[in-house]
């Protein structure tokens, strides 16, 4: 898998002031481990929908990660997708995610996946992802039981 990020940004945010339009792409070749059979989400040897979603999340992370202050990260909180076309083992795909809205700490992305070569414009699927910006160390401490409980 390869990742490419692009877009404007300052990287100085506690409550993010990330510019709309940040984007990144992730390229991957479908392997046996990526299939519905291997992931338990079906019984056919094609790209599994959970793997497709993971690639979209990876593109969203790559789009904003370089812009976040040290110690901050994002976690996924919501996703919606349409998986329109099967991709067999050996198929190369590209997933592009773009930051479309910032609502406080909530980041909203749209994504689209295409078969390579992209010139043929074969859309594999598309959707949206929501991620929340948080302090990585505090989050890990909280979920591991060594930090304070979240505020209601």
Question: In words, what does this structure look like?
Answer:
With 152 residues, the protein is of the alpha+beta class. It has one domain: Hotdog Thioesterase (Thiol Ester Dehydrase, Chain A, Roll). It contains 3 helices and 6 strands. The chain has helices at residues 36-39, 49-64, 136-143, and strands at residues 2-6, 23-29, 72-83, 92-103, 106-115, 123-135. It has a 6-stranded antiparallel β-sheet. The longest helix has 16 residues, at 49-64. The chain is globular, with a radius of gyration of 17 Å. The chain starts with a strand and ends in a 9-residue tail after the last helix.
Summary tags:
152 residues, Thiol Ester Dehydrase, Chain A, globular
SSE map:
Layout: E1 2-6, E2 23-29, H1 36-39, H2 49-64, E3 72-83, E4 92-103, E5 106-115, E6 123-135, H3 136-143
Antiparallel strand pairs: 1-2, 2-4, 3-6, 4-5, 5-6
Round the Cα radius of gyration to an integer and report it.
17 Å
CATH topology: Thiol Ester Dehydrase, Chain A
Query: Structural class from helices and strands?
Result: alpha+beta
Give the CATH class: Alpha Beta
Sheet with most strands: strand arrangement: 1-2-4-5-6-3
CATH superfamily: Hotdog Thioesterase
Q: How many angstroms separate the termini? A: 39 Å
Task: Kindly report the average pLDDT value.
Answer: 90
Percent strand:
35-45%
Weakly predicted, low-confidence segments: 8-14
CATH architecture: Roll
Overall, the morphology is globular
Gist of the model:
By secondary structure, the chain is α+β, with helices and mostly antiparallel strands. It contains 3 helices and 6 strands; from the N terminus they run E-E-H-H-E-E-E-E-H.
């Amino acid at each position: 898998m390869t990742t490419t990020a692009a877009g404007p940004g300052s990287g100085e945010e506690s409550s993010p002031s990330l510019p709309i339009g940040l984007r990144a792409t992730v390229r991957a070749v479908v392997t046996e481990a990526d299939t519905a059979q291997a992931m338990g989400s079906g019984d056919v040897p094609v790209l599994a929908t959970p793997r497709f979603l993971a690639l979209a999340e990876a593109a969203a992370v790559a789009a904003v990660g370089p812009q976040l202050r040290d110690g901050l990260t994002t976690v996924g909180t919501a996703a919606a997708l349409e998986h329109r076309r099967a991709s067999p083992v050996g198929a190369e795909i590209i997933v592009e995610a773009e930051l479309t809205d910032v609502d406080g700490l909530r980041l909203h992305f749209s994504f689209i996946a295409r078969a390579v070569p992209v010139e043929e414009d074969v859309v594999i699927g598309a959707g949206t992802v929501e991620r929340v910006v948080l302090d990585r160390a505090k989050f890990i401490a909280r979920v591991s039981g060594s930090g304070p409980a979240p505020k209601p």
